[in-house]
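Quick one, tokens below. Sequence please?
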């Protein structure tokens, strides 16, 4: 099937997968020899619930599972502030599958599950608690591998060789971070911060076991990921990944390639990324990521970017480029500014960058352009010259109160990806029930006008606003229609995944058990069948 054939799917990050508790059984899971108990440790992962979700998507006739970035998380457990653009998140590794594979004992895992059940909160991921439990289980698995599972050594060696262009740097960075009490690399010893060869050699030897442990973690992530991806492919489900344009300052990416970023002599950013004030935030958004020295990237033939895309395409079938407009022009904020109101637009690499990607990866890049926010004709031109579908968000379509909005389904082109909302939006029900307040860019009269227009346009009752929006984009000509699971289930604002501009309290929503059931799958499947999206 063509990547952009008429189809539909759901947006749900792994950490939001519903919990399963010890005592339930699953038969005939991929790679198992019979019944096995499953448990949950505070947040979703690559284990049994992920396979159940693939089966749910298949039953509902869905082609796509869209996720958020899957790298190790940074401050606030944000997937968009990762210490590595190439590595996998250790917290997504499934202890259940480690038990299945003989790397954990059943009792080690179930004890951690019971503790998580007692401490956890229904409908919310407990990252603080689950991360320590999960990392301890990974340390136990590493010791068991060293003592009992030497048969995995050839596979691990093969993985280290295949991923050598990033893995060694990531492992040393992670080991050094842990040794320095999680301090930022810009606060390390000068010789290590400047990456003097003798210092790198000495630290690599000093932290050899810690580096080996991190390589083992990444091997486990790769092993579980590829198994799940194969299972998805066998069931007709592809994965849409997410590649943020910018990377975290405190990352192996920046530490290992300082010459590619706008840093001063001490390794501190001189300018940072963000966006000016918009629909989401009256102060704009100061993300704080270091900006690229694009002229340096150009001189290397965009080698770092090409390797980054190749790595992501080893994991996903299609990639959403977050903040696509930054490749045409990006908002440059002086590093000392506390918010994003003061800044200037700077030119990005434009066509030259994507031509380099095409030469390395092929003419038809499997890319979705996240072209939201302040979008100019130049950004649209860049998108269209390379044939990337853009994004349409129906929730944005009602603000003007007229039929001319390009986010309204009757104005969609065929070559676009239509959404009820994204991870940055309130849920549809939350949006409909919102009130004017601090930080909002809308007055109460504007909100009321949007609601009235939405009900008139969708021709639905207020209680069915989420279904009305889904039917509108599913019936549109857009080649792909996607809804967050929160909208499929009609959940309120409490289920929102992220509030842009707010640094804490995000990313923690989890789907509750048994909500994604046969009834919901049948409703979604019938809608997809009615509008020619059934796969």
């Amino acid at each position: 099937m063509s990547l952009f054939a008429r189809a539909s799917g759901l947006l749900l990050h792994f950490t939001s997968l519903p919990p399963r508790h010890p005592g339930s059984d699953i038969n005939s899971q991929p790679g198992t020899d019979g019944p096995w108990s499953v448990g949950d440790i505070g947040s979703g992962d690559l284990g049994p619930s992920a396979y159940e979700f693939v089966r749910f998507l298949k039953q509902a006739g869905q082609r796509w599972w869209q996720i958020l970035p899957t790298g190790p998380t940074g401050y606030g457990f944000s997937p968009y502030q990762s210490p590595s653009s190439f590595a996998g998140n250790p917290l997504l590794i499934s202890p259940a599958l480690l038990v299945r594979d003989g790397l954990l004992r059943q009792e080690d895992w179930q004890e951690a599950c019971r503790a998580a059940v007692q401490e956890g909160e229904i409908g919310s991921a407990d990252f603080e608690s689950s991360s320590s439990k999960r990392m301890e289980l990974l340390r136990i698995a590493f010791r068991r591998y060293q003592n009992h599972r030497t048969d995995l050594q050839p596979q691990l060696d093969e993985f280290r060789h295949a991923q050598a262009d990033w893995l060694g740097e990531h492992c040393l960075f992670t080991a050094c971070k842990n040794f320095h009490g999680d301090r930022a690399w810009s606060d390390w010893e000068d010789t290590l911060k400047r990456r003097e060869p003798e210092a790198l050699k000495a630290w690599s030897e000093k932290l050899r076991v810690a580096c080996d442990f991190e390589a083992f973690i990444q091997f486990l992530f790769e092993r579980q990921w590829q198994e799940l991806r194969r299972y998805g492919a066998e069931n007709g489900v592809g994965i849409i990944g997410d590649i943020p344009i910018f990377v975290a300052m405190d990352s192996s990416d920046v530490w290992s390639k300082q010459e590619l970023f706008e840093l001063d002599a001490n390794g501190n950013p001189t300018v940072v990324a963000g966006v000016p004030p918009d629909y989401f935030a009256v102060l704009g958004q100061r993300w704080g990521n270091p900006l690229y020295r694009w002229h340096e990237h150009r001189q290397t033939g965009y080698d770092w970017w090409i390797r980054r895309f190749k790595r992501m395409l080893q994991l996903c079938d299609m990639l959403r480029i977050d903040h696509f407009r930054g490749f045409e022009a990006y908002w440059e904020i002086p590093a000392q500014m506390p918010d994003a109101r003061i800044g200037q637009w700077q030119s990005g690499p434009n066509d030259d960058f994507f031509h380099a990607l095409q030469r390395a990866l092929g003419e038809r890049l499997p890319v979705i352009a996240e072209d939201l926010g302040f979008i100019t004709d130049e950004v649209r031109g860049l998108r269209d010259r390379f044939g990337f579908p853009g994004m349409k968000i129906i929730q944005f379509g009602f603000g003007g109160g007229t039929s001319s909005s390009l986010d309204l389904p009757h104005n969609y082109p065929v070559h676009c990806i239509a959404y009820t909302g994204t991870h940055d939006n309130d849920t549809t029900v939350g949006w409909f029930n919102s009130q004017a307040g601090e930080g909002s860019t809308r007055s109460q009269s504007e909100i009321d006008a949007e609601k009235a227009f939405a009900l008139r346009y969708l021709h639905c009752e207020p209680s069915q606003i989420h279904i009305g929006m889904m039917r509108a984009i599913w019936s549109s000509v857009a080649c792909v229609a996607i809804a967050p699971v929160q909208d499929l289930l009609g959940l309120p604002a409490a289920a929102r995944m992220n509030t842009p501009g707010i640094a804490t309290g995000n990313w923690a929503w989890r789907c509750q058990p048994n909500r994604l059931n046969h009834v919901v799958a049948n409703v979604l499947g019938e809608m997809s069948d009615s509008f020619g999206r059934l796969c």
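The chain has one domain: 7-530. The CA atoms of residues 177 and 183 lie 6 Å apart.
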